[in-house]
Amino acid sequence: MLSLYFFIGLWCLARSDTQEACPAFTKLSFHSALLGTDLHVKLFLYTRKNMTCPEVINSTALGDLDVTKRTTFIVHGYRPMGSVPGWLGDLVKSLLSVEDMNVIVVDWNRGATTVVYHHASSKTRNVAQILTKFIDQILAEGASLEDIYIIGVSLGAHIAGFVGKMFDGELGRITGLDPAGPLFNGKPPKDRLDSGDAQFVDIIHSDTDALGYKEPLGNIDFYPNGGMDQPGCPKSIFGGLKSYLKCDHQRAVFLYLASLRENCNITTYPCGSYWDYRNGMCINCGPELKEPCPLMGYYADQWKVYLGRKDTPTTTAFFDTAAKRPYCLYHYFVDIISWNKDVRRGFITIKLKDKAGITTESKIDHQPIAFQKYHEVNLLARFDRDLDEVAAISLIFSTGRLIGSKHMLRILQMKLRSIDHPNRPPLCRYDFILTESRETTFQPIPCRNVQM
Q: What top-level branch of life does the organism fall under (predicted)?
């Protein structure tokens, strides 16, 4: 019995030693935030050989870093409470799942943790200097600037920009996930992230009306849902104070994560404004309007070649998302030719159903639609499901009035065509009546050529 206890003790001791030997991201308390923290940067190396237990490395000890592979840095932002970023582990694993690379987590929690935002933002250039020294070392060991990729979140995005400036914009790529706006909005390029800081800079703006940067910063700037209020986030503090303050800001991170691991690619549409996108004016992509539309997130750099053909290699791209993962929406054009002599203004709700009974719905209600006699209206409809075969379509016309007469809308032709899958044949229906606020369901038929 004594020997059994002895071996159990050895096993527990070995297990304890293993746990202690695995380095952990700095976790601080609100007490530390009140006192403020001096800057201290730690670098954690993850590879496919050590996806859960990293090595602590520095410019004099590179550990198992393979300089022949891409090296991706993850730089977090302001941490007012000192907690560990909840998305960090998922991002590391997701990056390693799509590519065999070095992933380095930059832990500057000692420095980012403070209740005074200005104190954290003032340390960004110091963090950049430390990273620059480290990158200089791996370059000396044979790494290539082309293979350096920095993903910066909030303040971390500007840190990435400062690093890029020190290498004259020759880093391979920088991704800014809702770059911080306060104290950076309106600053000149030398004092913030800029499109010239790497060979390719892509940005996801998800909170431009509060914590994020408002204006374009990269070669391609993505604005989900217009860049402001994100679906699924609380609209007031009654939805939870913590979530209300940071949900929109953090959505950029989760959208990027979705591009790595979800079963849909989030297609975006280069456009002059969010409203032009919503009105269906920007569904063709590229300088020749023939290229595939850019994908948001990890694979955004596939559009680098198309941007290089432009006189100014920058663009803004817009898209909408669902409220929950995987966030993808699927786009259709709905073309309607109406007959009514008098103009009818209102909104349209479209429902699609497949043979299995699965349904998806799109409300086109961002502005009133004017239906005129023999005039074709082109509507952009967005659905959260991709139905391979549409068996039934339902339409609801509404003027938005709560009381009054029920208007009717005579439709001479309705055509449904997929933007995401242009090879699918369009579906049509001819000559039917919509009664206000009443759902009308029909089976679509193949479209025929009709000259009005």
A: Eukaryota
